[in-house]
Amino acid sequence: MSEVVNKTDHDSAPSESKVLAAVNTSELENGNKPNQSWWNKSTRTKERKLLLKLDLFILHVKSDWYTPKASFAAQMFSGYLQAAVYTGLDGVHGIPGWRWLFLICGCINVPGAIWGFFAVPDSPYDTKVFYLNEEEKTLARSRVIEVGRKPFDGVNLQTFKSVLSRPFVWVFVINYIFFCLDTYGPGFFAIYLKSLGEYTVQEVNV
After folding, report:
1. Which residues cross the membrane (predicted)?
2. Where are the domains of the chain?
């Protein structure tokens, strides 16, 4: 994603350029993480119903917003949207355009954060979400016990030793470094365009 770049270093503040995609990307995709802790390989009927309910309140909400090409469309559109906000709202009520971008991003993200606070189900051992009854919570705990998952008991030195001694962790780290270089690197291209001094703020972001 491109970053918002302003005319002077004094007035500039880079945005993560997710005005459109932020509706469901950052705040709602976080539901993937806790949901992973509820999963095992079983396909029993009651368990499928449990996971379906979790998906309905978290993952399905997010997936309904996406098509395979939506991510690319969001990246392209967000640049145009930012340019429009920067131009159209710059100076309104004495607020610079780049500050308006932060305000708009906040207004988009706050509803998702509030929803996530109530909907993300924590761990099966201590979840308090409103849409699961006691039978379903008990079922969830029994499922993770079956595959040997224990309640989280904090982080200590042994935790780090255990994690860092696993080869797949290092394979993942190396893979993720290359993933970030390929995925997030182009997002800083706007900084390079700014350094050329040949483009306006609007041109840099579109």
Report:
1. 100-120, 168-193
2. 21-205
